[in-house]
Amino acid sequence: MYPADAEFGFELLVCRWAETSWPPTGRSGDSVVVARQLGTAERRWDTVVLECDPAGLAARGEFGPNELDSDLLHVVRNAPAEWAWYRDALPHPGYPWRYVRAAVHRAADRGAVETRRDGNRIQLRRTAAYPDWLRRIVVIENKPDLNATAARALSAQLRYDVDTGLADEVWVATETTGERVEPALLEDLPVDVGILAFDTGTAGDGPDGWPAAPGGVDASIEWYPSSVTPVPGERDDDRRGRRLELAERAYGRGWRSYHDTMRPDCRHFELRRFGRALVPYCAAKGRSQTAAECSGSCPKFEPEPPAWRTRGWPVEGGPGTGIRALLRRRREWVRKRSVREPGTDS
């Protein structure tokens, strides 16, 4: 059983599986970036997988590890190779120029462009051309217990994903039942949506459902998806821009960003290995907790003792700081390894 017996734990295992095993249809030459809980104002997805050109992804890394928001993308993508006044160099954004000027300064602070002053005018030039690094976006909805009620609620959302075509491929991830025909195949889901069935039992065969030794999470394809990439049309530029903004958020945040919304500074917060994934664990509850219940309002919450955060014991800044640093380093390590060796395990 997946950690915490809740969708959150299942989601973390799906993300880690995607990081190590994507694509499910076989080996490819693409690099992979995985994020979770990302989307637009209209739609949010559990898991987002970016299939990237390895050389382009490496070039994207030259602009730093943090995401470029829509204003920064407008500046970085259109920055000229030679010095020019920013109003001459950049296309009109559709909003006041003062916001563009602020974005130019933000981009310069990050080293994404260079600026200089010519009298009262701000000139800019690019430090490097922004690469064409994104190839495809794949979204996955995680429903470990995909019963008829859950399928009815999910069907309209999946139909929206198929019709809008913001992603190139749509999947549903569910847990295997061991039946000859997985129940997910019998539910009323859009025919364009693929179905992945995950066997998490092999990952948690130790005490309390935790693995006695590192293991993997196996997934089988129960239904192959159709490509939902729309045919070329008038709204191509708008779609390309929205996809790139989504990809930038995925690049900057990754799927391990749960430490930003949980409380690693609690003395009971731990990271434990479940298969190939590091997932949160609450020593006070004796189980893996969900993101919703791990907060300052939790009755079991106890801040780390001050002694833990001083004098460099057990780690400089305390265990909470160490957990955050570990997850950031692991994200960067996996990203760099993916660029060097697309399709390999990390």
Task: Describe what this molecule looks like in 3D.
The protein folds into 3 domains: 3-58 and 132-253, Trna Endonuclease, Chain: A, domain 1, CATH 3.40.1350; 72-126; 257-340, no CATH class. The protein has 8 helices and 11 strands. The protein has helices at 7-21, 54-60, 70-78, 86-89, 97-109, 148-164, 236-253, 319-340, and strands at residues 31-39, 44-52, 84-85, 113-118, 121-126, 134-142, 169-175, 194-199, 218-223, 269-274, 277-282. Helix 3 (70-78) packs across helix 5. Helices cover 30% and strands 21% of the residues. It has a 6-stranded mixed β-sheet, sandwiched between helices. The protein has a 3-stranded antiparallel β-sheet with strand order 3-5-4. Strands 10-11 form a two-stranded antiparallel ribbon. A hairpin with a 4-residue loop joins strand 1 (31-39) and strand 2 (44-52). It holds the Pfam family DUF5787.
List the main descriptive attributes of the protein structure presented here.
single chain, 346 residues, Trna Endonuclease, Chain: A, domain 1, three-stranded antiparallel sheet, globular, 30% helix, alpha+beta, six-stranded mixed sheet
Mean pLDDT: 87
**Quick one: biggest sheet?**
6 strands, mixed
Residue windows where pLDDT falls under 50 for at least 5 positions? none
Radius of gyration: 22 Å
Number of helices: 8
Strand order, sheet with most strands: 1-2-6-7-8-9
Number of domains: 3
End-to-end separation in angstroms reads 23 Å
Structural class: alpha+beta
Q: Give the overall shape, derived from the CA principal axes.
A: globular
Helix content: 25-40%
The CATH class designation of the largest domain is: Alpha Beta
Give the tally of β-strands.
11
> What's the oligomerization state?
single chain
Sequence of secondary-structure elements: HEEHHEHHEEEHEEEHEEH
CATH architecture grouping of the largest domain:
3-Layer(aba) Sandwich
Query: Per DSSP, what share of the residues sits in E-state strands of 2 or more residues?
Result: 15-25%
CATH fold node name of the largest domain: Trna Endonuclease, Chain: A, domain 1
